[in-house]
């Protein structure tokens, strides 16, 4: 195991504060997102698409365990865990052994969980808030992930060809992320024909043609770097350039509101008004607009009912879009209320919008 980790110690204290506040006997974290948070970037992921992994965490007032089976224990101990945790290992074919251990460790008392069973209760909002606000060490990891993800995007779109299929472009994107140690949890691609038709365009065998959009949700240390970029072979038409200008200006309205204590539904309402002012009143209903991010691609998706407030050191990823145009990056709200773009690549073409450098479509040839 790795040496004791100060970040993990701080998080275990937060978990134990929750135990004291709720009179619970244990907290059981099953999701891959919570595993990464509690272990300071460890991974319980084997199947990329799964929300739960090959291990979970159990914390009581005195101890912290990683619960896993005999298939996974050695690798987890060698590569993922610090000495803050003990391992409890059950036979892979006998899950009942694990459940018996949990009952004994918690004295049959109340258990809270991120994914509660019928005899458990959900985690309180206070602990959810702790997960969504980045510690300094988490922010440093996030910067590293965002830089790698944006560099992968630039690398792939700079070498793409119009006769590539959407599958080829998505595959090249995934390869570039893997080469940098990032999980390609999402690589959406739309070529010229499909781009104006679908907001969530999963790749097909169709050639991309004269235009393409690629979207990344790239995961490293459990944290998600979310970004969207466009490619055009030849100059964009004035009409398409205008669409991209509109989404940049709509996004600027939103980014200006990303300050501590701002409710998410206020940001959503501002988005709706911005679309209206730009002549696209239905756009707010044609795709979700994003929200907070971190250990999930979206921790909270903003809508008219989300009264959760933004906080210092919270990450956001907004994705305003029109038919054939979209913009997206991952930002963190710093202590001074300013935004830091974690997925900014200085090698990608940008224009200044409201004092921020924002990406524009890459025009080739």
TrEMBL record:
This is Peptidase M24. Residues 140-333 form the Peptidase M24 domain. Gene3D superfamilies: Creatinase/methionine aminopeptidase superfamily. It holds the Pfam family Peptidase_M24.
